[in-house]
Structure formats: C-alpha cells, structure tokens
Amino acid sequence: MKLEGLTAIVTGASSGIGAGVASGLARAGASVVVHYHSGRERAEEVVKSIEADGGAAMSFPGDVSDEAAIAKLFDAARERFGRIDVVVANSGIQKDAPIRELTLEDWKRVIDVNLTGQFLVCREAVRRFCAQEQRGRSRGKIICMSSVHEIIPWAGHINYAASKGGVMLMMKSLAQEVAKERIRVNGIAPGAIATPINEDAWRDPEARKKLLALIPYGRVGEPEDVAACAVWLASDESDYVTGTTLVVDGGMTLYPGFEDNG
Ligand code: BGC
C-alpha cells in the first residue's frame, strides 16, 4: 500500500470531499485523523467505516480559523499516531450572495475558514514536519483543497472565489518557500463534485442539466475522483511535484462554451 506507515490529517472530513479523501488515504494505508467542526456524528461514522475496512482513524474537533485549536489537533494526531506525514487543508464553506447583499460577516467568515484556516493548518504542518525525523523521500506533504474557482470567476460568490484565488497563490508561495526543507505543497482544484455544499446544483434534475452543460466529460464528479488524486500527491510517486494545482473537473475549466464556436 502506497501510504503504509504514514499519518494524515484531513480537515473538514466529516462529509463531502474531506470524508472521501480521509477514506481514500486510509484505504491506501495511512492512519487518518478525521478533523471536523460541527459534524461529530458524521465524523464518527467516517472513522467507523475506515476501521471496518481494517484501517486506523480517529476524529478530532475544532475551528480551523482558531490557532489554539489547530495546535491541539496536531498534538492529538501526534499523541495517537506518533508522527504526521500528510496534511490535507480541506475545510471550506460557501456563504453566497450578490455583492449588494453580501454582509461583512459572511465575507469574513468565508475568508477565515477557507483562506486563514488553510494558512494556520499549513503553518502548523511545516513546524511539525521540521521537528520530526524524515520518513520516505520528503519531510512531509501538504495538500491545499482549492476549487476551479481559483481560476473561474464566480458571480454571486465573490467571497468564495476570492478565498480560492488566495489559496492558489498561498500554496505556490509556500511551496517555493519550503522546497529546500523537502516539504511538498500542492493544490487540488475540484470542479462540481456531488457533495452537500452544492446539493442545489446536482440533486434537482433541471439544475443538474444546467450543471452538466458546464462539464465536457458529461458527469458530475464524486469525492473518490478527488481522493485518488490526493493519494497520489500524498505518496512518493509524486515526489518531484510541488507547487502545482491538479485540476479535477471533467473539463469544466476548458471553456466548454467554445466547443461549437467554429
Ligand atoms: C463549489 C461548488 C461548485 C463547484 C463548481 C466548488 O468549488 O464549492 O459549489 O459546484 O465549485 O462550480
């Protein structure tokens, strides 16, 4: 198994892409910390299903925008599994509104969770990776969960798009900064993946039809599509890859409107 002997922390792993990534990393042999904010029961379910498959996991709560909570998360991971090798900064929220109605509170909360939260998780990861003995080809791997909206502008979602654009350049700048420490930092930019965050866009058949018009590959993504990429980025197979965003979107970023625009 590709990730045998490694420990991974996945933030926001009680549902959606985070839960899928946590399960995928565990299937590849990693011990996994399933971090959650408010979904304790769902996080416990993720842990149970990993354990039922023969894997090792624990859940741990906290707010990613709280420095002290992040330190506690990493302490708990280390206490239980001895070390930390892979960190997936995944927690993310949407609070959508056209600009006239977008409150400062909703602007700040999205930036706090999606961007500041990733900064805090990345900072702690770098500190911890440097304080432990290297195992494998690198000192550690960080994966920042971004979105196609690090590239595609999104009217009515400016707080979210701004946070993901920020994640992209934070990830690249950090990759440049810590490469000499042999820490790899990459991003994943999922397109429309069927999860609770975008349920409105895929559950209703009419909405789904509109969504599919934006996806050349002709299907909505699944958390497993993202998990497979996370496993690869977390493994030594991708050892020469750093500072890159892997776009996992069925072609959403390929300007599908131009397909028949002869
Ligand atoms: C958003 C989803 C959206 C997808 C494609 C994601 O980052 O969270 O709500 O469906 O991008 O637009």
General description of the model:
The chain contains 8 helices and 7 strands. With 262 residues, the chain is an alpha/beta fold. A 7-stranded parallel β-sheet has the order 3-2-1-4-5-6-7, sandwiched between helices. α2 links the parallel β2 and β3. The longest helix has 27 residues. Bound molecules: beta-D-glucopyranose. Beta-D-glucopyranose binds next to loops. The site of beta-D-glucopyranose has 9 residues, from loops.
What's the short version?
The chain is an alpha/beta fold. It contains eight helices and seven strands. The longest helix has 27 residues.
Which helices and strands occur, and which strands form pairs?
Layout: E1 7-10, H1 16-27, E2 31-36, H2 40-52, E3 57-61, H3 67-81, E4 86-89, H4 104-130, E5 140-145, H5 158-178, E6 183-190, H6 199-202, H7 205-212, H8 223-234, E7 245-248
Parallel strand pairs: 1-2, 1-4, 2-3, 4-5, 5-6, 6-7
Radius of gyration using CA atoms only: 18 Å
pLDDT average, as an integer? Answer: 97
What is the H/E string?
Answer: EHEHEHEHEHEHHHE
The major pleated sheet works out as:
7 strands, parallel
How large is the count of helical segments? 8
Which residues form runs of ≥5 with pLDDT under 50? Answer: none
Q: How many distinct beta strands?
A: 7
Estimate the helix proportion, in percent: 40-55%
- Percent of sequence in beta strands: 5-15%
Outline = globular
Give the structural class: alpha/beta
Q: Give the N-terminus to C-terminus distance in angstroms.
A: 47 Å
Sheet with most strands: strand arrangement = 3-2-1-4-5-6-7
Bound small molecules, by name, code or SMILES, are: beta-D-glucopyranose
